[in-house]
């Protein structure tokens, strides 16, 4: 007997072999999205868009439960608006799509060329603080008008030079919340509240464990006083930001003239916040739960929960199997999982083993095979996406229907537990500069793409130390954890770069 | 006794006094939307956006019930893509927002100027046939891949010179469906099926009666073989298009290379369709149901169904009234109307009569006043938005809860019936050229803004006659009614312009 062969994988290369290429291949094999002919823009295919719709539904319901209302503001922002907040325009000027003309006409060489130059260029929104601030300045007059709690679901454009589907695209879909308050305390509380919403979305619905923290001044949103974030660990041990919530102080209120009369009839600037999450989360889902056979979708946001795969060798068997399958689908669809009915796909394609593999690659939580023998036994043959693809169990039909929500919960929890164990396994308290540098430098044996992790190390607060580490290792401070965000010893110590006193550990990592 | 005064209206001017200005004032008073500082773009405020969300929910469910799946395609279209279909680019070249640069940098005068010129200009999508066609050309190889049924919810930009909130804005929100089929018959059937969906949306949900028809060659979508549409009558008797469905033949399949191998392994071009409806529908809602006190929202799409208005003169009364109000709200919210729970607002503002008027202007279907006397009688005091604002009735609390869905149905039906009666009253069979010209020319006694209506007159099919009438009167052929769309005598006759034989009557009107 020879050495046991590795089981064949549906995705090639595997994560170990070439992580970046694995990611691209998973996106393709799972049918979530594809590159478009427009530089840096993606096409979100139906399976991927349905996943986004489910994320939107959950997040939108959580926003509304906190009193937020949706609205819609212009796609275009006059250049002069962006310039009102100096740090803000500085942060976005290098990656703006600029509209300069409003029609096309025949050029000297016969083809169409831009015509009708605009007197003021318009920027396609990279974010909407300034244009929404303009509306707030009209809506808000008195303390009685506050708070104003608004969210917008929209597309935004940031002209990225190196793009990667879902993770970094020139156009992406997101939501941006914008609120205005009478007091600093209330605005701070809202900033924190929305971070909790993103935490719940990530952990409960996407099964992605996150660390709550605050950005350093160097990593803050341009124009913010404070940026809170939730950081997740991908399978190459890099960090991905899964949501941010900014306390903007009175900066944007000053820039946009958002003033109100307080109870003493004195004029004050409002305190504002903004917070957002985007289609980047789908990249995070893939890199948290994907394996060498494709993606694994958490049941709470999966476009469909279960696929029924009828097995019939001829018309006679088909006449037996199909009514059983349809009746099972009907019974499952009457049940709910979370806020949605159980979503059932039926795949009758006659393409052999490729059929089951298609659904494995697409990450559907449950595959159910149904043939004449299963029907004779009043049972179904069930495979879970979080288990080995060869592990399938025969379950009585009635029991499967009765227990499907428990099974889905079990998958949801298994994904979260696995991801949390991975994050913990690659999070290390580190106090020695040399071991810190070794940690973030791939050894000869390691694949350069997969190494390191989260280092919990001290930082004195000096931007120079932050910059030195970034330049040496490509490692940045992902966040200064909020009190209680981590169990480890977070007390004071000495800066990993310069040794000077540091009030607490921070999370260092390479990042997307 | 002097002459009876007209009751004061909440909107000034009234429809009779100045229809265009009435429209602007209703949009403002109802808090649906406002103009933005960006030329031709609007800000959709929470009340208006929630209305749009409800329209989206209904339409999206209808699309999905026909097998359509949502996806998302790039905002930007390379100029060369638009140029692939000659009529198409011709139709949109005059009103395109063109992105020519991808960053901003300090200019000679210190301010920021566009930099990083693009090698090929990008057009902000005015519609997406060409960019979606590119994806279809990759997705479709065999007849087994067909049909492909896709819809996109998106923003689009058409640089309009004269804009009007909701009705004609440079940026608007819409959905655009795009399908590809193996046969002409199937594509034609889909074109017709989606027209039926728009009819159902308009009549059942928006309470707007429509006439189904087909556009003349001159009014067709640029690049389409056939454009079907539904046309509604506004209160100034002009027509508004409430949805279009285009049969594109093989034009866009040829332009984008959408080919498939048929069952005989021969290569064929696919047959495609596209269909859309937009935030313009909200303009249609306002102009169909609005009155001199504001808008009236059909219950099926209203952001909220009922507002509870507690009446308490002091803290003691408030302590009595508020628990009753909260309990009533709870009981109502447990019920459903259509696919949504009953949506209840509670307005506790202490602003006197302005409170009730705010909700009248905003068009909420039901206003319910609750004071100590109502509570003593176990009743509530109910005003319907479709009745005179002074007409309110006392109803037992239990009966109100039990019957609220019937009351909402009654309002929904009343709005539709009223609009249908209006449309019929201003639709006239007309066979004399002189009376036709008189019909569309305001007399001295008439306000120039409100006159005419729909003329059902004969047209020989000659574009010259269509153009002559358009130039003389500003009147166009809104549609050639589909068989059965109208009850009137639709048989052959003589052209209203030239007298030559005509196969059937068409709908002439001034239009938005």
* Beta strand count of chain A: 27
- Biggest sheet of chain A: strands side by side, in what order? 3-7-8-14-11-10-9-24-27-23-22
- Describe the sheet with the most strands of chain A: 11 strands, mixed
CATH fold call of the largest domain in chain A: BirA Bifunctional Protein, domain 2
As a percent range, the share of helical residues of chain A equals: 25-40%
Report how far the terminal alpha carbons of chain A are from each other.
45 Å
| Arithmetic mean pLDDT of chain A | 95
How many domains make up the 3D coordinates of chain A?
A: 3
Structural features, described:
The structure is a homodimer of 512-residue chains. Chain A is of the alpha+beta class. Chain A has 3 domains: 19-289, Bira Bifunctional Protein, Domain 2 (BirA Bifunctional Protein, domain 2, 2-Layer Sandwich); 306-421, Rossmann fold (3-Layer(aba) Sandwich); 427-509, Translation Initiation Factor IF3 (2-Layer Sandwich). Helix content of chain A is 33%, strand content 27%. The first copy, chain A, contains 14 helices and 27 strands. In chain A, the strands form 7 sheets. Chain A has an 11-stranded mixed beta sheet. Chain A has a 5-stranded mixed beta sheet with strand order 18-15-19-20-21, sandwiched between helices. In chain A, strands 4-6-5 form a 3-stranded antiparallel beta sheet. In chain A, strand 10 (226-233) and strand 11 form a beta hairpin. In chain A, helix 2 (46-65) crosses helix 6. The longest helix of chain A is centred in the C-terminal third of the chain and has 29 residues, at 397-425. At the A-B interface, strand 2, helix 2, strand 3, strand 4 and strand 5 of A face strand 2, helix 2, strand 3, strand 4 and strand 5 of B. Strand 5 (98-106) of chain A pairs antiparallel with strand 5 of chain B, so a sheet runs across the interface.
